[in-house]
Amino acid sequence: MAVDPLCAQLRDLIAADVGGTHARVGHVRVGDDGSLSVVRYRQYACAQAPSLAAMLRDFAEEEPLATEHAVVAIAGHLDGDRLVNSNLPWPVSLERTRVEAGRRRLVLINDFEAVAYAVPRTDPARMQLVCGGDAATAGPALVLGPGTGFGAALYVPGAPARVLPSEAGHAALAAGTPRELDLLRQLLQRWPHVDNERVLSGPGLVHTYQALCALDGVATALDTPAAITAAAQRGDDAQALETLSIFCAMLGSLTGDLAVTFGAESVYLAGGIPAQIAPFLLRSDFAARFRNKGVFADLMARTPVRLVEHGQLGLLGAAACYLERHAAD
């Protein structure tokens, strides 16, 4: 991804990747050839920080940087000056954050938009193939994944490349089996709109587990995503095991739906959860449900789905996006 000549003087910037649970803040350096590297990096717990600005300011004060540029990849949608997000522990105003963080330039972009920008910079050999073919593709790439919420974006190669962010996590959840219909009916008793995040996220694991326990007439014994996924992988709680099985199956269905919708030639699974449950995911119905698209079944069987560690991708992708679209403003 080439750097605009007008941005060639920019050598350092602060980049952050902020989700509902953790924020990763880093010092990103721009090489003469436009390559990006993370010089310094720190992870924060969002619930323990008073604001986004406080984390950015704390990071900058640890080791002062000769840059006034900052870019934040963050879950949600920017509506004017206000970030629309249901998973962060504090509100976010773009201008107030810029002033309180002490930055001359601050840009907010969607977190999965940043991950999508990072995908072309990531070696496929470092990713795990979940299903589909393993041939290189040059067409649109779908990047998605569940964590505290559910993110999705489409990378469209070109000169320049484009990324289409989305709020697919807030689209309506679709059931694919009678049991999933029962689950959906149960969830509709709590919410008039059951979106994908109600199941395909960390909190969604808890919602599903509670609903299955109610359907089966048993008491809930687990109350956190970590406890549910651990019990499911041990196999010692029937409802937890079914919760994670449904999670993987419905994730496969939604991933296939989005790939068909956008004509994606490759798919990258990110987010906080898939990498944590990788062995379970590979044994699950994810691949079968991904392929189950009627006349598109053969095409889906050839479409590669790769598991990518979120790690520092958000930082590098945010920096890449900033250099390409904002640094010369």
Description:
The protein has 329 residues and is α/β, with parallel strands linked by helices. It folds into two domains: 127 residues, Nucleotidyltransferase, domain 5 (2-Layer Sandwich); 183 residues, Hexokinase, domain 1 (3-Layer(aba) Sandwich). Helix content is 36%, strand content 22%. The chain has eleven helices and 13 strands. A six-stranded mixed β-sheet has the order 8-13-12-9-10-11, with helices on both faces. A five-stranded mixed β-sheet has the order 3-2-1-4-7, sandwiched between helices. Strand 2 and strand 3 form a beta hairpin. Helix 4 crosses helix 5 and helix 5 packs across helix 7. The longest helix is centred in the C-terminal third of the chain and has 25 residues. The radius of gyration is 20 Å and the shape is globular. The N terminus is likely disordered.
Describe the secondary-structure layout.
Elements: E1 12-18, E2 22-30, E3 36-45, H1 52-62, E4 69-74, E5 77-79, E6 82-84, H2 94-101, E7 105-110, H3 111-118, E8 128-131, E9 141-146, E10 150-156, E11 162-166, H4 178-188, H5 202-216, H6 225-234, H7 238-262, E12 266-269, H8 278-283, H9 286-291, H10 297-302, E13 305-307, H11 313-325
Parallel strand pairs: 1-4, 4-7, 9-12, 12-13
Antiparallel strand pairs: 1-2, 2-3, 5-6, 8-13, 9-10, 10-11
Helix pairs in contact: 1-2, 3-11, 4-5, 5-6, 5-7, 6-7
Number of helices: 11
Radius of gyration: 20 Å
The largest beta-sheet arranges its strands as 8-13-12-9-10-11
Order of helices and strands: EEEHEEEHEHEEEEHHHHEHHHEH
- Strand fraction: 15-25%
User: How would you sum up the major sheet?
Assistant: 6 strands, mixed
- Provide the structure class: alpha/beta
| The number of domains | 2
Low-confidence runs of at least 5 consecutive residues: 1-7
